[in-house]
């Protein structure tokens, strides 16, 4: 199943794998736990830092 969302807490809780797109281009993909814990690409880190700074925290 494929789900498209900007709800990072939902994605973190239910996904096995995630694909991060920016302007229609795949920036990073991999295991959800690994990507939320330590994203490799700067653009992914920037996006997730907004999520983390919003008080949702990493789990």
Automatic annotation (TrEMBL):
It is found in: Cell inner membrane. The keyword Methyltransferase does not apply. GO terms for cellular component: plasma membrane. Coiled coil: none annotated. SUPFAM superfamilies: P-loop containing nucleoside triphosphate hydrolases. Keywords: ATP-binding, Cell inner membrane, Cell membrane, Membrane, Nucleotide-binding, Transport. GO terms for molecular function: ATP binding. It comes from the Bacteria. It is a peripheral membrane protein. This is Polar amino acid ABC transporter, ATP-binding protein. It comes from Pseudomonas syringae pv. castaneae. The lineage of its organism: Bacteria, Pseudomonadati, Pseudomonadota, Gammaproteobacteria, Pseudomonadales.
